[in-house]
What we know:
D-Maltodextrin-Binding Protein, domain 2; cell inner membrane; alpha/beta; 404 residues; NrtA/CpmA_ABC-bd_dom; transport; five-stranded mixed beta sheet
Amino acid sequence: MTDSQNTTRADNLAWVAGSDAPEKCMLNLGFMPLTDSASLIVAATQGFAQPYGLTLNLQRQSSWASLRDKLLCGELDAAQALYGQVYGIELGIGGPSAEMAILMGLCQNGQAINLSEPLKRVGVTSSEALGRHVRHDGARLTFAQTFPTGTHAMWLNYWLAAQGIHPLRDVDTVVVPPSQMVAHLKAARIDGFCAGGPWGALAVEQGQGFTLATSQMIWPDHPEKVLGVTREFVERYPNTARALTMAVLEASRFIDGSLENRRSTAQLISGSDYVDVPLSAVEPRFLGHYQDGLGNAWEDRHPLRFHGDGQVNMPYLSDGIWFMTQFRRWGLLRDDPDYLAVAQRVQRLDIYRQAAEALGIEVPPLMRSATLIDGRTWDGSDPAGYARSFPIHALAGNARAIAL
């Protein structure tokens, strides 16, 4: 901890006194066994919450559906959540509906699409070969993702479509909790998966498959996990929401602060209470060192990030809107919602701005732009037109049922 960080903490002790004191001091914080849960684990275990009057009780979850259910019933106060998962709940897509809130982004990048060892043996080791295998050889492959409205479903759909493979017609998809992906691959129940770390790296390490694409290849510095709560929680405990955001912001800044901090964080989260895998499956990609299982190694230009001077943590309106465009694209929404209005409800920019400004973290513009793998630029300006613009989509179809 640097002297300036200690000074910042001391200055912000004022937030735990008087009218700014947290209304609720002990919080149950849900997380999944993933490398990108790091900021929550660090905040809870390394002294970042106590200065704000909080005690964070970490509770590891077995699936995103279980995490959702516990968050909605109040068993969890806040949780690591998939960006698209929060919007799916807000819009009532195929499951429990509730008014939701995103306090901040937790990370960018760091997810992977892996294929199986049997596909490797028959030469399906590139996107072109996969396209030929599916479209011309008539192979019916099964891919796993982690939650129907979640980020991994959207990355998988987007990437397949960019290769000319229709994700709803040309392949089958199933939902599998991230920690079970490698076992399903080994048992030949699936031919590939999209999930967060360390599961892509572990599949490579165990000789069960190879990484064909990373999520940052699809969208460099894409939105990924968020700190999610119900809107009722924010309205009932606004000081607590702000204090929690500040604690996790400080933890995020700490992780990205140095290579040493990253190494120590990788060591921490690999432990049995958290991700529970060998450090060798966590640390390399945590540090941006990639091996794909095909003999290729590289230093990633867009590695898993937790802070990036606040660029990672900002709950951009355009990020939330993008996921809704994909719901519309794939028939999960029958009609266009009021994209901007929904995002303005869900993204709690007021809470984030208060927390960031108190910590001296710059608050960037509410919209950002990016060019994705298919060459299309997203800037949030015309979401309805963007959703309709793709050559591969399912806009005319009915919303698919989701029962998880």
